[in-house]
Amino acid sequence: MKFGKVEQPELIDFTIPADHPETAGVLGKNKDKGPSNIFVGCAKWNRQDLKNFYPRGTKDELVYYSSQFNCIELNATFYRIFPAEQYEKWYDKTPDDFKFFPKMTNEVSHLRRLNDKVYGIVDRYLEVTSLLKEKLGTIFLQMHNNFNPKNWDRVVRFVEYWPKEFSLAMEFRHTDWFNDEKVAQELYHLLEENDIANVLVDTAGRRDLMHMRLTNNEAFIRYVGANHESDYPRLDDWVKRLKAWELQGLKNIHFFVHQNLELESPLLSAYFIKNLNEAFGSELKIPSTLVQPSPPSLF
Known about the structure:
The chain is an alpha/beta fold. Helices cover 34% and strands 14% of the residues. The protein has helices at residues 23-28, 61-68, 84-93, 106-111, 119-129, 152-161, 176-179, 181-193, 231-248, 265-280, and strands at residues 37-42, 71-74, 99-102, 139-142, 168-171, 197-198, 200-202, 218-225, 252-259. Strands 3-2-1-9-8-7 form a 6-stranded parallel beta sheet. α9 packs parallel to α10 (265-280). It starts with 22 loop residues before the first helix and ends in a 19-residue tail after the last helix. InterPro entries: DUF72 (IPR002763), UPF0759_sf (IPR036520). It holds the Pfam family DUF72.
């Protein structure tokens, strides 16, 4: 994932901004309603991307990956809609408590850009994606960088069309969605009224995407490491912020670890999970081949 990549990450202020003033109100609606649901994973499971993660002789990468992590941000579905048999195989290969968080096909987000012709595609996508059954987590829709607020009517129509039985998160990247206060407020309220998560992206070159505005009881976070020693303290800061949100009422944490160059996403994930378990009292499995007591000195 090279979105937001910079040449000198040491020059970036990675401080997590203060919460948006309305985030506390959103979280407060669900306070004291049980323990948090925490899912942490990578974006892909294929061996080429997750360097040195799979033991020698691993025959099925998904089977092994799902024995180590409790979820996957399923980026493969961005590029095409797979046949029904593929979703059934993914379902059968993974443990009962595993979840997939699939990306909406780019036909909807990038090629047709939420125009009136996307709805048949959405129906076809959901028909096969629903075969993941209870292992289906939140589906997320990532809009193109140049999809701007001039397309507001398309967003409204899409949100109104979306079947409410499927959890949805939306990621907007054009700066005007966040830097124009009137536009931002309209967007946040639309998402909040329809129980849609507002995706947070933590990446070096686009700090404006750290709007810190939650729109429902789900923190859907896409963390992009910079292949730099700062990746680890950034994760420490996220543990602190998520714990603060939990105290305010947050129940659903969906955190996906990327890097500009996917070299150590499993290592970063293991480090993050270990610290989450300590802060939350949770018992998420730490990938067994990657447990380390402190950040490795690889930089």
